[in-house]
Design brief:
Helices cover 76% and strands 3% of the residues. With 276 residues, the chain is mostly helical. Strands 1-2 form a two-stranded antiparallel ribbon. It starts with a helix and ends in a 5-residue tail after the last helix. InterPro entries: MlaA (IPR007428).
């Protein structure tokens, strides 16, 4: 960003100096051809300097681009990096021009309490599948906790819009079938970027259809309700990470690598660091 501002400032300064030189040339051309010649030489030098700077800048950018391309595929966890980056760029563009603006409107229009209620509702529905996965992983205490959360929030919490369970000391967990497979000893496999869904692994990709089937709202409702609820859930989740997204864009030198490494580390921690 600083380089762009600096480069833009140089271009503006060069344009202004060229305009001044031309004005002086017009003013004194009738008085001294010698001074006019000097001004012309100065302009040529300035133009040559600008051209050299442009060549240096272009060469530097080319070297940087070649360095990035050379590093593609060097991570053993990401042998499909070239293909993954194509999908990542597609998802990033879709997010930039569709999901992110929609989430910003959603966040600015809806009161915070309404956003909290919507997030709680979808979280309560997700606790059903979380409870099932914790039981399958052998975490019986967590599974019972998650099932009790659903009971409390669905009744006292008015269908899940109020998170009574957390206030009552029942912590929220997150578990999916990809984690369950990991607990069963299935290796994660290579890193994969899925269209629309984003970061994943081969194991998690195989588990994704099972997660959709196990999702109460996705599998037990009509097509219209399912599509509406899925769209609203995506928008609500995107709105909840708007600030984190800005932080990544500002801090990450390579957004793709940042998200990939963070995802793999998080997934390994969710299962067991020794399993992957």
């Amino acid at each position: 960003m600083n380089w762009r501002l600096s480069h833009s400032s140089k271009l503006n300064a060069n344009s202004y100096c060229a305009w001044q030189g031309l004005s002086r040339l017009i003013t004194v051309i009738g008085l001294s051809l010698f001074l006019g010649a000097c001004s012309t030489v100065g302009s040529i030098k300035s133009g040559a300097g600008t051209t050299i700077d442009s060549i240096k800048t272009g060469a530097s950018n080319t070297i940087d681009n070649l360095s990035v391309k050379t590093n593609i595929g060097n991570n053993p966890r990401d042998p499909l990096e070239g293909f993954n980056r194509v999908i990542f760029n597609f998802n990033d563009g879709l997010d930039e021009y569709l999901l992110k603006p929609t989430a910003e409107i959603y966040r600015s229009v809806l009161p915070s309490f309404a956003q909290t209620a919507i997030g709680n509702f979808f979280g309560n529905a997700g606790d059903i599948w979380t409870a099932a996965n914790n039981v399958m992983q052998g975490k019986l205490a967590d599974g019972v906790n998650d099932a009790m959360r659903v009971v409390f929030n669905s009744t006292i919490g008015l269908g899940g819009v109020i998170d009574i369970a957390s206030a009552a000391g029942m912590p929220k967990h997150r578990a999916d079938f990809g984690q369950t497979l990991g607990r069963w000893g299935v290796r994660s496999g290579p890193y994969v970027v899925l269209p629309l869904l984003g970061a994943s692994t081969l194991r998690d990709t195989v588990a994704t259809p099972v997660d959709f089937k196990g999702d109460f709202l996705f599998s037990q409702t009509s097509v219209s309700v399912r599509n509406t609820s899925t769209a609203l859930r995506f928008i609500d989740k995107r709105a909840s990470v708007l600030d984190a997204g800005r932080l990544i864009e500002e801090a990450a030198l390579d957004k793709y690598v940042f998200i990939r490494d963070a995802y793999l580390q998080r997934r390994a921690g969710q299962i067991n660091p020794d399993d992957d």
